Amino acid sequence: MPNYTKTEKDTAFFAKHGELIAAVISGILIAAGFLIPSLSTFFFIPAFLIGGLYKAKEGLTELVQNKKLSVEILMIMAAVGSVIIGFWAEGAILIFIFALSGALETYAMNKSQKELSSLVKLQPNVAVLVTDDGERIVPVADLRIGDIISVRPGERIPVDGMIEEGHSSVDEAAISGESVPIGKQRGDTVFAGTVNVNGALTVKVAKEQKDTLFQRIIELVEAAKNEKSPTQQFIEKFEGTYVRIVLIVFVLMLFLPHYIFGWDWRETLYRALVLLVVASPCALVASIMPATLSAIASSAKKGILVKGGNHLEMLAGLKAIAFDKTGTLTKGKHEVADVIVREDMDEGHFLQAAASIERLSTHPLASAIVRYSENKNISILPVENLDDFPGQGVSAFVNGKKWKLGKASFVTGNQDSFFAEKAAQLEKEGKSIIFAGYDDQFAGIITFKDVIRDEAKETVKKIKELGLHTIMITGDGVGAASAIAKEAELDFFLANTLPEEKLVEIKKLRDAYGPVAMTGDGINDAPALATADIGIAMGGGTDIALETADVVLMKNDLKRIPEAIARSQKMNRIIKQNIVLSIAVILVLIASNFLQIVNLPLSVIGHEGSTLIVILNGLRMLKN
């Protein structure tokens, strides 16, 4: 934590809260002017200068540097005009309320970004490095891949890595939004910014600080803050044109009402000044950004990183979502599905021999057999003369018998109609098969399948309830694709698709349904992610998938997809409410001004009050 001097702290405090402080001082001076009428001018003048400082500077800077008219210019003109015609009190109130609404808008923006900026504070600056000479504290930035660090109970894990020793519960809320700590043991992956709850851990560094998942979150969030939604972009372009129109009407109102309606010159000027106030689009301009930033902030807290307001707004308009299979709908890790043995073979003995041999192999299917046997508490036997035959299988002696595991032709040259029929049937279901046997005979077969994610079926159901079509696009064969699509209850699937074909299929889906999202995790998904209206990447996916996607699910949690869509729909509803309210208030106040019903103080209250309402309404998106 940096050490600041008292002067630096005071400067930082005033930079953050100066606008609100100025507004409050302005309000106090105005109140004093009303309480002491004889000295009202003495109080109103500094109230004008102090209250209007920030907004005047903002408006003039925009005008001089960017040659752009803004609502601040309208307010400055209205306040100065009020003084010219002798309405000191009304002008002072205008400045005060405008300054106060500006300060509260700034507060709202800061509030909506609080969840985002707090991410940086969660990243440790130092780590305990374990070396041959003992432990020492080093900057996290100095850690390199392969270094060993120690993480004590209650400390934040400084880098992405793998547990070498120890077991603990780890609070991953900063990454995924999941409030329940997750049990971790040797071999499990841990992430920077998460909290080691109750056990000492020794962790091997897997990524340098700049490449950690947590750092990636921070970078994506920073980029998202600068991306604006289409509606926001339109409003900002519209603002300059609208202000010009108001100024033209203002000039016309300085003369025409006197000749057309017979108003005296003082009333004509007064109504022209009121028009500057009531026609200012402050509420309209503030209708979008607070809601958008609040939605991005609350999404990040739940482990959904949206790379900009434009993507968040577009989520609500999706008509279909396409999913990759391996690593997206499934865990990308094969598990044992079936164990089928011949009549005279005991399944336990069969698994014991298979697991004893396969525990010496690094093949993913071998690991699945070992895990399956461990779950059944099957012990491991000594293995002798292990031989590996690439592309065919492995052989080894177990209890004096030479076992073979692999392809059917490798295990034996003999035909077995029972296992042949079973294998053909199971392959149609998309399962991988290992044959096993000894003495030139089949002893049994073990089948594997890529296990569907626990939340996949529930996610698909919720997406359908939102009115979207669900499709799987995979490079896998029809059998495997059909099994997963049926289990997840997708509308339909497309199998045997190459990366470039996935891109074409996304375009076809867009033509058939409308805006479409693609969800994937691999390099082969990147073209489709880029082509889709919204690309959604799994947080554990490849770097190119994460860079290409518009939305990242940081904890690989598919349930966050319908949550993100629902959040987008809510945000768009709030924005529409704000726009309708702000336009309605402007029209009512303009009409009331022409009818000479509303005066300057009431117009200020009505106009700035609507601005505060839309800001507060936008902040509702902070609620999860």
UniProtKB/TrEMBL annotation:
Similarity annotation: Belongs to the cation transport ATPase (P-type) (TC 3.A.3) family. Type IB subfamily.
Keyword tags: ATP-binding, Cell membrane, Ion transport, Magnesium, Membrane, Metal-binding, Nucleotide-binding, Phosphoprotein, Translocase, Transmembrane, Transmembrane helix, Transport
Cytoplasm keyword on record: no
Residues covered by the P-type ATPase A domain: 122-222
InterPro entries: ATPase_P-typ_cyto_dom_N, ATPase_P-typ_P_site, ATPase_P-typ_TM_dom_sf, ATPase_P-typ_transduc_dom_A_sf, ATPase_P-type_domA, Cation_Transport_ATPase, HAD-like_sf, HAD_sf
Protein name: ATPase
Primary localization: membrane
Membrane topology value: Multi-pass membrane protein
Naturally occurring in which organism (per UniProt): Siminovitchia terrae (Bacillus terrae)
Transcription regulation recorded as keyword: no
Lineage start: Bacteria, Bacillati, Bacillota, Bacilli, Bacillales
Record localization: Cell membrane; Membrane
Transmembrane segments: 20-53, 73-104, 242-261, 273-297, 579-598
